[in-house]
Input
Amino acid sequence: MTSSLSRNSSDLNGYRKSVLSNGVRVISDTSRHVQSVSLGIWVQTGSRFEPRHLNGISHFIEHMLFKGTPTRDAFTIAKEIESVGGVLNAFTSKEFTAYYCKILKEDLQLAIDVLTDIFLNSIFPDDEIVREKQVICQEIHQMEDNPEELIHELWGTKFWSAHALGQPVLGTIPNILSIDRETLIHYKTDHYPPTETMVVAAGNLDHEVLLELIAQKMHTLYSITPRSETSGAKGVSSCHIERRDLEQVHLCIGTNAPSAVDESRYAAYILNTILGGGMSSRLFQEIREKRGLAYSVYSFLSSVSDSGMLGIYLGCDPERFADVVECTGQVARELFRSVTTQEIDMAKNQIRGNILLALESSDAQMNRLAKEEYYFGRRIALEEIMATLGNVTESEITEVAENILNQDTFTLVALGPVEQDIDLRGLFLNH
Output
């Protein structure tokens, strides 16, 4: 079997990458000081690749792969991993669907057996499809009952507008209820090709053992149709109010930011950290600590392969809402004029610490391996990341801040007991 494999290894510590003859990539990072292995099968597909009438199908398929194969029913799939203390799970995003587990190093073969079985051999039972439709509808309802989660979903939909990036990962209830078994099977076949599939593992393992075990299972995967190409998007400038009978008003404000591969992404990381990336950030200090206007306030970066957005979230009492919006606008728009060397150094150290602490988890290492392969086609050495981060200059951060914050192209979405005639944009831009 090994003669049919093409190998490409790196000298970055325990990192190895191999490619099966059908195009499946097998990537690992060995750490001998841990007792666990995090193993995932990642497919480069998600909600942005879905036609609008099938929005939600990637997430639906993710659910169905746990519902049975010719040799395992749903209970057996869960029991086999949990009986050895492992964790089995999955997620769907805009650009990925991943099936993963974390197990002790001696249970690697069991994890591979279970993951490859559900990935390759799921049978999509009709009765499970009917049940899972109701489960997903409940998941959508649960998201809608969580204001902080809902405001992010609403904001993303408005920000990306008609572009496929604006489609919700969960889909819509009418779509979910209309999807049948044949559609699920055909979509999985078309969107799970070997060339878009990665097996990624991090922890206490041997790459050659992993490679042989995966090759025995995944060599049967073949491609039928190529995945459709994507196009980048820019967020639209808009303002929306969604009135709800809630105790608080929830607000998301955001604008365009660098993509996950843009050279200015490190400057954007630093900018986001200074703006609202923690308790020492400007937003937290000004809005919560100095003025007591809100309990929860933070900023975030959300980037994909060809687009990105910088957002601000906050929740506050209705009577303080106008003051919070105006104060948030002042903090955001002052940032590109007054970034200090001390703030930059603190943000760099914060980011550096976050990266290093995350590396203590095999789960985080697996995620990093998969995303670096997807976005860059290689493992990026930690030394390279730290050097690039450290070399970001004040002028680069100021330039990114001006590009992101010194503009009127913001999307604002408010959820809660908000007056319809409130001038959100005017308050935020201090007009």
Confidence is low (pLDDT under 50) at residues 1-11. The chain has 16 helices and twelve strands.
